[in-house]
Amino acid sequence: MPRTYPSAAFAAPATRSWRLLEFLGVLYVLGSLGIGMASLALMYPTLDNDFFWVRFLSNGMSSALGHALNMQLSLLTDNASMGIDLLDPSSGYAASDAVGVHPAYARFIMYQELASLRGGILGLRNLQLAAVENVGAQYCWVDLGRRWAMAYTQRRQERCRDRYATNGAMYMETFLRNIDFNAWSATTQGSFMQRIGDGVAESPDGPAFLTYLATHQILHVESEVRFWSDAGLDRFVLQYTNLNQIGLEESIEVTNALGVTSRLRIKSISQVSRATVWFTSSMTLTLMYGFGALSQNESLVRNASTFFGHTSPNAIEIYNVGSPLNAFQQVVHDQLGPLGNTDPLWVPVPLDVLQSPFAAAYDALTSMTLHPTPRQWRDPSLVFFGGNPTCLTSAGYSFVHESYGFDDGCMTPMPLTLHWSPLLSLFALYMATLMGTPTTLCDLVPQTEIDACFGLLRRTADALATAIPTEEAAINVTTLTTISIFQIVRRNGSLGIETQRLLDPSFAFFGWMSIYEWAMNTREVILFDGDIESYAVMTYAYAPLPLPAYTVLSRLGVYLWYGSVVVSGVALAVGLFVLWLCVARAPRSSPTPWFYFHRLTSAAWLNRGLVMGRGVAALLCLSSGTLQPLVTASRGTKFLAGARSVVVSGILAGDVTWILYVLQDILLPFTPHSDGNMASSCTLLAWLSLLVVDVAAPIKVTTHLHRSCLSENLDSMLHCVSGHLSIGSLRRVGWTIVALWLVVLGSILLSRATHKPSTLSRVPTLLLSAAAVAYAPTSDRL
């Protein structure tokens, strides 16, 4: 059996230079092992989530991002796209902002974003048959040709002709063309034919129309859009109803440094049936109740000889609220129109409001809640019975009530309330001043709030003078003048409906505050369009809901981190053992190859997969952005780039060179003349390059918002993907790998061109790894 003998150098006397080299080598090993352990601590905050986003879940980054994106999405107009710079101060939010999930946002999506023909068609095709009769739609016509009218009254039929003719939701045919008509008709147990079909069949072309419905084949979406457009339709808007709290799941897509895209949920609103507090039913009913309201053989088709309006025109109202009407119901009947025959409609925010210069404003002022009373209602003899036209029973009170609201339970009356906040007050004061309306607003609040109101007004005026230059108003106020607050008031012993126009000069300041909240989806404007009168009512402000719990998985990231722990653990154990061995075998006469410690250890004691994983983990950290929130109690939250220090970048860049160790180890058979100096020089070059690139060109986070939503059962549930955020750069990862390969290949070519004959006459022992032979050929004792 061959034997291996120590070289002659082993017995040579130690020199001073050798001892210095040995001392420096020991320091290098101890220092590099310590830095390796520190690197684990640096990598963990990034690798604890598969976004590879440093401290995403631990320092409020997730909630700050959710709040910021939700505020930006509130300003995103129909089908628009926009890129946002999260580092821009306007992308943050003020401490006074009502952050969270606005309950009205889901209705904004349903009644405005999905109001296109395509949105309506896709929604209808995702509608369960059992839900068809409960959709918020009070039809005007059976068919798109308008041959069979369906409005309950002649005045509403005229309203349909003048205002709703281009709205696809007012035609029953648009629904029936996009569902399984025969299956749905069967679920009505004959009600469709009795209430609608038989009335249609009386006309000469009625049977052919019914046959067409029964045999119609659903078209491709684009073909259906063209069909609707050819019929003169341009939108599909359901009636506003509070039968259901529309559910919402909204997410953004986040792409990490590996190019893997995951979804991050930023809004979640539960879908809830509100049948027990469905107060818009006093205004309008669904088709199911229309079927049930009529006597036997009566029809909903106005053309039919059996149309219910011929014999019992009040049948819908009586079925809806009973008979006789109470005093409140009678007031609404007399001044708005018959109950059950009013069209509640969502009013979109005008684009010029959303695009005004106040989307990002000054946030250094304080907040307060005020309770103003409009000047026309300051008469102490007045008695107020409510501001919600759908609440038809109430006791009288001496204060002005809150306006209509989606979730109003018609139980405890609340006084009219406005929340003074910096952004609202700046916007309101600017517009009130620009419109030439007086700012004697503090005269309208209770005596206990007057001093605080004047103080807020003075500070707001001072801030406005420095924050916003005077310029021509960007808002066309004529589109806003009809919006009002609604009240049922007893004046001089008589009940009646009264309104306060928001932009009336005496109330304009508070009106502009409400309009700002409307633009931010904190309020809504609902048009109650009746046979006698129409009222555009500003709702009360809704309290925001909390953000959803964030569940960001960590599969790959945590795997890479624990693999890195193994690498550091093994290196530490081997290092301590070798140090002990060197001390125990002293004195020695030849230097130990300490400066090749990690190369030799990784080749002999670790597999290439673990070593490569350690390098990849560090590379993912370097290839990911470091966006972080800065939260202050007075100024709110903004985002900072959070650039890594040179020291941190240097440590992570050093860990990336583990990849280089593996590549050099794999290619050793092709570099028989390689030596340690060449390998070390290449590694140093790679480390410097990585460090310079990370310091000079850190990864930037890019964000792009574009909302894409799909409804489930139309006005029941919405699912939205509303943007894309890139936290990492796959390009940086790819170019780094390419650069490392180029360094290795360059070193091979350089080694072949400049090699010298090897001084090693034979392999010291077959027990040594190729790396040990290449980088420390005289250390056969190791």
TrEMBL record:
Keyword Transmembrane helix: yes
Organism, as annotated: Saprolegnia parasitica (strain CBS 223.65)
Residue ranges of the TM segments: 20-44, 559-584, 639-663, 684-701, 733-751
Keyword Membrane: yes
Protein's name in the database: Uncharacterized protein
Alphabetically ordered keywords of this record: Membrane, Transmembrane, Transmembrane helix
